[in-house]
Amino acid sequence: MPDSYLKVTIFRDERTLARSLAERLASDLALQPRQVLGLATGRTPVRLYHELGTLHAHGRADFSQVVTFNLDEFWGLPPDDPGSYRSFMDVHLFNRVGITPEQVNFLRGDADDADAECERYDRAIASADGIDLQLLGIGTNGHIGFNEPSRELAARTHRVRLKESTRRSNAALFGGDVSRVPTEALSMGMGSILRARRIVLIATGKSKARCVERLLTGPITTKLPASFLQLHSAVEVMLDTAAGEFVHS
Ligand code: F6R
Fold first, then answer.
1. Is residue 141 annotated as a catalytic residue, yes or no?
2. In contact, 35 and 29? CB cutoff 8 Å
3. Domain layout of the chain by residue ranges
4. 134 lines ligand 1 (CB under 6 A)
5. I want to staple 188 with a disulfide (CB 3.0 to 4.6 A). Which of 5, 37, 85, 192 is the partner?
6. Counting atoms of ligand 1 from 1, which one is nearest the CA of 42?
7. Predicted TM-score of the model (pTM)
8. Are 11 and 241 in contact (CB under 8 A)?
9. Which residues is 200 bridged to in the sheet?
10. How many CA atoms lie within 13 A of 21 on its CB side?
11. CATH classification of 9-204+234-240 is 3.40.50.1360, yes or no?
């Protein structure tokens, strides 16, 4: 495999990856407690969030000065809907590490006007002086946030129609019923993501191996939105052995 522009680290398994990243984030916070964190939802970061919860419970991860921005939210859902990404974050991270609502920035899926809501979010990121560390997962089709493969990608926060495959992979949040998964979402755009000062993408499991291989070695193309990460100078890709099966050192 040709060298990748991106820094890649492969861990024995998902748990080792989550622990290592959680320890690193906690040490970073000890050195620089006021950080703007860009966060992702989905299956992949759940272990990491739980590890951070454990470190916090042992007094080893202080989130009291952190400001957060999440990548995306389903359009049409209020924040307290059990299927919303906001609810997901409350359950898996915010409530576990003592992040209060005042520290949290989230796209409102129940806003009156989607465009105005997206503009508000971009302004909020700018007034926080940008994102220090953006955490990303990757969809099997190469999406990041809800920037789905297409002929062109939006730079800014925008409203997006979700691919059926993306709706299917979110069905668990809606009792396994894909028909209840909203058809649209609001998502940070590629420009907003690439403006983050540092980016960590995590991918685990065999189902991610192909998109990870394309991310690391393929051309930069709107057909694989994650490939644009090759243009960023401070990206780290953290994989378990299954997701990194095509990566040879
Ligand atoms: C969610 C997000 C998505 C997920 C991606 C992978 O906030 O940004 O891009 O990271 O769909 O999802 P999982 O981790 O469930 O495989």
1. yes
2. yes
3. 9-204+234-240
4. no
5. 192
6. 15
7. 0.96
8. yes
9. 135, 236
10. 31
11. yes
